[in-house]
Design goal:
Helicase, Ruva Protein, domain 3, Rossmann fold, 21 helices, about 15% strand, 4 domains, seven-stranded mixed sheet, six-stranded mixed sheet, alpha/beta
Length: about 525
């Protein structure tokens, strides 16, 4: 059983303990009403209890009776009357109230009061009222009477059972091809984590209908379903990733570190005793590939890439900013395994040093994030990038927040050759047709982004002249550009000095910029 399945089972066992302990009213937050009902029926059968269900369309009816045999309780459509019936019943039972939350508002005091009286009346009986709703709306009057729990999303075991059922239904059909070996099956099931059972069934069925197959290649279809979840949350951005790790020039040590952790999210790694990787903090000079790495990692690991914009978390109401951060992190965990990208975290969290100006909101949001980062056990890999370490609070930099901290410096000569070749190839030019040694020397002190812009400028010049781009065009564009390493030389030197001994270099070769050659007379 995976860690996620174990955690889910622990949560379900905890809810059952509440029922056995005679908690009168339990509020289950879940979109999966049918799963909650099936689980509740299993608990009731184990405990020798009946199950009744209520909705505004049916009133209070027995769940075990077929729909055709039910007598519609028109009077009990009124939740206050239905709660009266709950109190009047004498047999041990579980009462599932579906979507009662619209009635638990300030202008429905009669229902709120009736639920409070019901909780008191059934406290010493073998009856439990279970409210199920996708939203948690609870008035202060009921906070001490109602216990709120989150119903866990389906685990890998449930998705495995669903997949077996779908495969059995379509197996033998001539137009359907099933190509799932053990590894492909595990990849597909892990990709589905974070979906509801109904969402997973829909996407599996849609995949089979679209191309008549169900293979590991269909992981992208599952990611498309997750994209809908992210869009509806409104708190995170979903990035379509098409950046291969080979499109990142240099950074060999960082690439090797990431490659070694590519299999750390598998069940085999859990059995071996490996915890899920927490994340990595990338410090360094602007334009040297930190953000590009985030996109490449998601592509290499075949995971969705989510971007967390910390600025979007801040709301006008007191406490809403912290709640937004918690919700965003919950959404990320719900679609795990996933890569969560925080770009330029130094700018987002700069306010923690002077949080008095915003009544401490920035510090509280930051504290919420730090607590989650230290305690999370889900497969959410965090990639945070920063340019200026002076704005980073020391709590973020201590060991345990991230697995590792890398310093991304300006590219050295070999890395500049790689970057030139990558950008020329991306624009349909053969790198072998250019003098890369000469261009790499001319680009000494340039960042990867500045090298790319020099190639773009050379393309414009060649296009305006009516010819094709050549080494001379790029060389001229490089020599006409003043790189950031000259305009911000003091800041870059300070950053390098700070990183020495505090962060691992992202490349095996020390000294990203070529040292000046010593001039001697012969």
């Amino acid at each position: 059983m995976s860690d996620r399945d174990t955690c889910a089972q622990s949560t379900l066992d905890g809810i059952e303990v509440l029922i056995r302990a005679r908690y009168p009213v339990i509020y289950i937050v879940s979109w999966e009403e049918q799963r909650v009902q099936q689980w509740l029926a299993a608990v009731a059968a184990k405990r020798g209890k009946r199950v009744w269900e209520w909705s505004f369309s049916t009133g209070l009816v027995q769940a075990q009776v077929s729909p055709n045999g039910r007598s519609r309780g028109n009077a009990s459509k009124d939740p206050a009357i239905a709660l009266d019936e709950v109190v009047a019943h004498v047999e041990p039972a579980l009462y599932l109230f579906k979507d009662l939350h619209p009635f638990l508002t300030a202008n429905n005091f009669a229902v709120v009061r009736k639920l409070k009286e019901t909780a008191i009346a059934i406290k010493d009986s073998y009856k439990t009222v279970v409210l199920v709703s996708p939203l948690m709306q609870l008035p202060p009057d009921l906070e001490k009477e109602v216990t709120v729990v989150d119903f866990p999303l389906p685990g890998q075991a449930e998705f495995s059972g669903l997949l077996d059922r779908i495969v059995a239904e379509v197996e033998g059909q001539p137009n359907v091809r099933l190509g799932l070996d053990a590894d492909s099956r595990e990849q597909l099931l892990k990709a589905a984590l974070g979906l509801t059972l109904n969402e997973a069934e829909n996407v599996f069925a849609k995949t089979i209908v679209n191309d008549g197959s169900l293979t590991a290649d269909d992981i992208e279809s599952v990611f498309a379903e997750k994209r809908q979840i992210i869009r509806k949350s409104g708190l995170l951005d979903y990035y379509d990733v098409d950046t291969a790790i080979s499109q990142v020039g240099g950074l060999d040590q960082l690439k090797q570190w990431l490659a070694n952790r590519a299999l750390a999210f598998t069940d085999k790694a859990r059995t071996f005793g490996l915890p899920p990787p927490k994340g990595v903090l990338l410090l360094g000079i602007q334009g040297c590939g930190k953000s590009l790495c985030a996109k490449a990692v998601a592509s290499m690991w075949r995971m969705p890439l989510l971007r967390l914009d910390v600025g979007r978390m801040f709301g006008s109401l007191m406490g809403s900013s912290e709640e937004n951060m918690r919700r965003a992190l919950q959404v990320a965990e719900s679609v795990a395994p996933v890569v969560l990208w925080l770009d330029e975290i130094d700018k987002a969290l700069a306010g923690t040093k002077s949080s008095g100006s915003d009544n401490g909101t920035t510090a509280r949001v930051f504290g919420t994030f730090l607590t989650w980062l230290s305690e999370k056990s889900s497969s959410v890999f965090v990639i945070a990038t920063a340019n200026d370490i002076s704005d980073l609070p020391p709590e973020l930099l201590r060991k345990g927040r991230f697995d590792e901290m890398f310093f991304v410096d300006l590219p050295n000569a070999g890395e500049r050759r790689d970057i030139l070749a990558i950008h020329l190839d991306r624009r349909g030019r053969d790198p072998k047709a250019f003098d890369l040694e000469r261009l790499a020397q001319a680009a000494n002190g340039f960042s990867g982004a500045e090298i790319e812009q020099a190639i773009v400028a050379a393309l414009f010049e060649a296009f305006a002249a009516g010819g094709d781009i050549a080494t001379a065009h790029i060389d001229r564009a490089l020599r006409e550009t003043v790189p950031l390493s000259k305009t911000m030389e003091t800041e870059i030197t300070r950053l390098r000095e700070w990183a020495t001994g505090r962060a691992r270099p992202a490349t095996f070769r020390e000294g990203a910029v070529d040292a000046p050659r010593r001039k001697i007379e012969l």
